[in-house]
Design brief:
Helix content is 38%, strand content 14%. With 411 residues, it is of the alpha/beta class. It has a 7-stranded mixed beta sheet with strand order 2-8-7-6-5-3-4, sandwiched between helices. Strand 12 and strand 13 form a beta hairpin. Helix 3 runs parallel beside helix 10, helix 4 packs across helix 9 and helix 12 crosses helix 13. The longest helix is centred in the C-terminal third of the chain and has 21 residues. The protein is globular, with a radius of gyration of 22 Å.
Length: 411
């Protein structure tokens, strides 16, 4: 039997599940900025979401030792026993939360942990509540997994934090998860115990709602802010919460691709099923290095935290001195999320009117050669994100350029 295929039907046809998902605006801006640099333009890129520090030497040495010892084979599906034990110890030591080894999962970065969890739990029609501004991968992963993202705007006046009344209003019979990130990418906002408590009380009143928390920036907090994770505050949440973390930010191990989480045994087991058909185990050498990162001295974190704080203070003070910009002081991470409403509807030297935050960030890239990310990429406008995980000298030069660019705008 011969099957005739029309020419127009023979081309590539993407799956409908990715129809609303595209390459992130962050990557698009980074790609354009990198191309401009290759052309010889002096572009400063303030969009990278990774520390500019190197992986600590003792962690790198552990990886080399693992290679020399032949630890280059498959490990257990969702994490080696040694790494799971190190994660159990970390949760108990730093967070006051007791997990068993079979309540721990390890994946190829925290993004895979998120994907595994949503793929294992979301059915069509299920909803995930996500406060905005938010890391854009959250909603894209939900959509790919067949769920619906319920985006709840959280403004600067509320510290970019979800409020209890907003959460209560957003919950429906279809709500499957609430996803919180503290400290936050992109805003740097963090939830204290007092901030979390009203939200926890709302979730406790709705037994069908589970809580997912992304604690990736746990060790990058400032001004005596005390980090806390919700399960430590409310043990009753433990049986319906997934606590996600990783080694990427604290240990400058973004390329090593190790994320992990603690959660109920049944959920962890279901997530392992997804991972078994996706990537299988994470890199064995990266796991060996992560054991040493988690079990070793954490003293170096203080110096790195202090360095980030100096840069944060520099960026916040300089931005707030520029007419038309407003920058809240973040509690953690290495981002500022600044309002730019005061420069909108102004005209550039080339005669273009800035109508939205994307117009402003495009202007900064094209005319000032500074790459930043518009708030619209994170679900909240008109703002823009700066990553200050770069040298102070580059930050000073970038801020000088932003200042000059804003001064050149006409009403």
């Amino acid at each position: 039997m011969t099957i005739t295929v029309k020419v127009e039907e023979a081309g590539f046809r993407p799956a409908s599940r990715i129809a609303s998902v595209g390459v992130s605006k962050i990557l698009q801006i980074g790609s354009k900025a990198a191309a401009m640099k290759r052309e010889g333009l002096p572009v400063i890129i303030l969009g990278a979401g990774e520390p500019d520090f190197d992986t600590p030497d003792h962690v790198k040495q552990a990886a080399k030792a693992a290679i020399d010892a032949g630890e280059t084979k498959y490990t257990a599906l969702d994490g080696s026993p040694a790494l799971k034990k190190a994660i159990v110890a970390k949760f108990k030591r730093e967070n006051g939360v007791d997990y068993a080894v079979d309540e721990i999962t390890v994946g190829t970065g925290a993004k895979q942990i998120l994907f595994n969890a949503f793929m294992a739990t979301i059915d069509p029609g299920d909803e995930v509540i996500i406060p905005t501004p938010y890391w854009t991968s959250y909603s894209d992963i939900v959509e790919v997994c067949g769920g619906t993202s319920v985006l709840v705007p959280c403004d600067a006046e509320a510290g970019f934090r979800l409020q209890a009344e907003q959460l209560e209003s957003a919950i429906t019979p279809n709500t499957r998860w609430v996803l919180l990130n503290s400290p936050s990418n992109p805003s740097g906002a963090a939830y204290s115990s007092a901030d979390y408590r009203p939200l926890i009380d709302v979730i406790l009143r709705h037994p069908h709602v589970w809580l997912m928390v992304d604690d990736m920036y746990e060790h990058i907090v400032y001004d005596d802010f005390e980090f806390v994770t919700p399960v430590a505050l409310e043990p009753r949440l433990k049986e319906r919460a997934l606590t996600i973390n990783g080694v990427s930010k604290a240990y400058a191990m973004t390329g090593w691709r190790i994320g992990y989480a603690g959660g109920p045994k049944a959920l962890i087991k279901a997530m392992a099923v997804i991972q078994s058909q996706a990537t299988s185990c994470p890199c064995s050498v990266s796991q060996a290095a992560s054991v040493v990162a988690l079990n070793g001295s954490q003293e170096f974190l203080k110096d790195r935290q202090a360095s980030f704080k100096r840069r944060r203070d520099l960026v916040v003070s300089r931005l707030n001195a520029i007419p038309g910009l407003q920058c809240r002081t973040p509690e953690g991470a290495f981002y500022t999320f600044s309002g730019c409403a005061g420069v909108l509807n102004k005209v550039t030297p080339k005669g273009k009117t800035l109508l939205i935050d994307t117009d402003f960030t495009d202007y900064l890239l094209e005319e000032a050669h500074v790459a930043v990310v518009p708030g619209s990429a994170f679900g909240l406008s008109p703002f823009f994100r700066i990553s200050y995980a770069t040298s102070e000298a580059e930050l000073v030069e970038a801020l000088d350029r932003i200042e000059r660019a804003c001064a050149a705008l006409k009403s």
